[in-house]
Specification:
With 314 residues, this protein is of the alpha/beta class. Bound molecules: glutamic acid. The site of glutamic acid has 7 residues, from loops.
């Protein structure tokens, strides 16, 4: 059975980009007769307080985008919050440490920026490997001054996969990414590790998410391989951009549900998003169930989608 998921990071009220993500994940799984798991990605507890998660769930329910497994359903709410799942991440990290694949990194943000070249097209930097080969005594010295982050050694090897929407994607981990973080210096586990551990533990077979995470996928595939886990199928969809071409963020108030609710219905929001995503030509207000008949990945564009100046007349 297809098991999809919503994996929002509740660092504010959801905006049209987050809603499109959940809509596509829901449609893609349900069209195959599958189900949806809701996992709250609140590893960064300072940025993702509980009240935002609560609001996010209310928003999803208002939109008619329910889930089949997750908080509010089976009385095990805590187990769907990443902040409560750190033991699992510890266990995975230990497995990798035992194999000698993890090392401490003492670089400061400024050092990382100065040493990490070349910068990639997507703005991410490639880790230069500064702390990769420190001796035991160098590590000891540095640890007196600063608690280290932990990085995974990556091989000079290509990782490729067939994205369900974007097609073939390949990256050489050493050249295009460098050794990547598993845990930050403040002890917070990195998204890459947590997402792999959780998607596997929750039996997720299909991941639908924005194209900004396409380049994370080779790192995640490497982790799946090392941890001996089965990866899901990935579908990356184009990002929704603000009318001026910037990436939509929680700061774009008029794209936030906060601004829309009370002026437009849930069906209007979904109808317009489905129109922008290419599979609902009329743009008529629609429920997720109504959109199931029309949804097809083939009609979703490959290039980023710019929001019009006025999506709704409010
Ligand atoms: N929590 C991430 C976000 O809200 C999504 C991660 C994923 O889908 O893999 O952007």
């Amino acid at each position: 059975m297809t098991v999809g998921r919503f994996a929002p990071s509740p660092s504010g009220r959801i905006h049209l980009g987050n809603i499109l993500c959940c809509l596509l994940a829901w449609l893609s799984a349900k069209q195959k007769g599958g189900k949806i798991v809701l996992r709250i990605e609140d590893l960064d507890t300072a940025r993702c307080p509980r009240r935002y998660a609560q609001q996010m769930m209310e928003d999803l329910l208002w939109l008619g985008l329910g889930w089949d497994e997750g908080p509010l359903l089976d009385g095990r709410d805590e187990s769907y919050f990443q902040s409560q799942r750190t033991e699992l991440y510890h266990a995975a990290l230990e497995q990798l440490e035992r194999r000698g694949l993890v090392y401490p990194c003492f670089c400061t943000r400024a050092e990382l920026h100065a040493a990490s070249a070349p910068h990639r097209e997507d703005g991410q930097t490639v880790y230069a490997g500064t702390c990769r080969n420190l001796s035991a005594s160098q590590r000891e010295e540095r640890a007196k001054l600063r608690s280290p982050a932990l990085r995974l050694r990556v091989p000079d090897k290509e990782f490729s996969f067939m994205d369900g929407h974007m097609g073939h994607y390949v990256e050489n981990l050493e050249r295009d990414c460098g050794d990547f973080l598993l845990r930050r210096s403040d002890g917070m586990f990195a998204y890459q590790l947590a997402v792999v551990v959780d998607d596997a533990a929750m039996g997720i077979t299909e991941v639908v998410r924005g194209a900004d995470l396409l380049s994370s996928t080779p790192r995640q595939l490497y982790l799946y391989q090392l941890l001996n886990l089965t990866p899901p199928t990935f579908y990356h969809f184009p990002l929704l951009l603000a009318p001026d071409g910037r990436r939509l963020s929680k700061r774009d108030a008029d794209a936030g549900l906060e601004h829309l609710q009370g002026h437009v219905s849930a069906k209007e929001v979904l109808g317009k998003l489905a129109y922008l995503a290419g599979f609902h030509p009329s743009g008529e207000p629609s429920s997720p169930e109504e959109l199931l008949k029309e949804f097809s990945w083939e009609n979703v564009p490959l290039k980023d989608i710019r929001l019009p100046e006025k999506l709704f007349s409010i």
